[in-house]
Amino acid sequence: MNAPIASASSNAAANASTPAAPLVIPRPAQGEFESVLAHGGFMLLDQFGVIEATGDDAPTFLHSQLTSDIQHLDAASARLAGYCTPKGRLLASMLAWRAGDAIRLLVPHTLGASLQKRLSMFVLRAKAKLADITDSVAVVGFAGDVRDALSSVFEALPDGVHVQLAGPAGSLIRVPDAGGRPRYLWIGPRADVQARLPALESRLARVSPAVWDWLDIRAGEPRITADVAEQFVPQMVNFDVLGAVNFRKGCYPGQEVVARSQYRGTIKRRTALAHIAENAGVRAGAELFHSADPSQPCGMVVNAAAAPQGGFDALVEIKLAALDDGTVHLGAADGPALAFEPLPYALPAEG
Q1: Scanning 262, 265, 327, 351, which has the fewest C-beta atoms within 10 Å of its C-beta?
Q2: Residue 25 contacts residue 282 (beta carbons within 8 Å)
Q3: pLDDT tens per residue, range 119-161
């Protein structure tokens, strides 16, 4: 029996009067990982919110604010983007796509309200309006062998990464594979998604949204949340490699800093994939220390998620020199050690 989809904002309101609990990274049951990896599964992604921009000037306005080319975003595509401070530090990451005449932004839920408010401050005379529509839509992630299940909702499936198909049920976007498994995002009207859940559950396992967090990490896609806002320029989290920065477009906040980092010197910090076997202190924003230089941090955890084999997988921003020799540890030079693994894409040679 499927549970109703609670709106994210109503959940936040219900919890507003209670003290903040210690941050705990949720751990899905082992069988949930196995279902997705061996067969396929879907998950309701309440860790995301959706901001919608409408009006004649909405594409031009967002183009002037975000790191990607939004003005030329077509109806069949989606695009990663970042939003920076004037100093070039990322405030948020997002996925942008067109929904009819509107442009929608999929953002970490913890940043939705502040991001919508901040962007709205700069609209000025532009014919554009931004609204948080999280309560009226649902975001569903699919991973693994899910073609048959999705065929009950959509007439066709996107045939490439960041290709979007729109239909009566909403938007279906192919996102990067993780562990060799294809992945899709369905963003549709909340009531319609709710009505289709029983049919989906008869075809496919429904699993924890925390599985999606792990899949994002295995895909090598950092997510800028409130815990790490204003910590990184885009290249530090590989956004230039992932297509989240357009270096030929016009100005946006922080553009000069981002361009200078790209063209005027070696990029000395990147994001890497690592496994942390121990549980203590694993969280976004936790500092990393190198065995040869315990007095100052050499990096920071960007995202972390429970891993199927136990412990945690993480995307960590780190000095490239720290990967050459010695060991890297969480929290202190004698903290849990990180075991580094290859990313699913190549980074440019830095020289």
Answers
A1: 351
A2: yes
A3: 999 998 899 999 999 999 999 999 999 999 999 999 999 999 9
User: In 10 A of CB 178, how many CB atoms?
Assistant: 23
CB within 8 A of 265, min separation 6: which ones?
A: none
CA–CA separation, 321 and 336 (whole Å): 20
All structural domains of the chain with their residue ranges: 28-218, 268-342
Q: Which of 308, 153, 139, 152 is nearest to 217 (CA)?
A: 308
Q: How far is CA 56 from the centre of its chain?
A: 28
What is the dotted CATH code of the domain comprising 28-218? 3.30.1360.120
- What separation in angstroms does the CA of 268 have from each of 93, 122, 258? 21, 33, 14
Structure tokens at 145: 């062998």
The CA–CA distances, whole Å, from 249 to 25, 66, 75, 119, 246 equal 38, 10, 19, 19, 6
Reported as a single tens digit per residue, the pLDDT across 212-252 is 999 999 999 999 999 999 999 999 999 999 999 999 988 99
CA distances from 75 to 6, 251, 277 (A): 29, 24, 43
The one-letter amino acid code at 71 reads Q
CATH number for the segment(s) 268-342: 2.40.30.110
DSSP state at residue 233: -
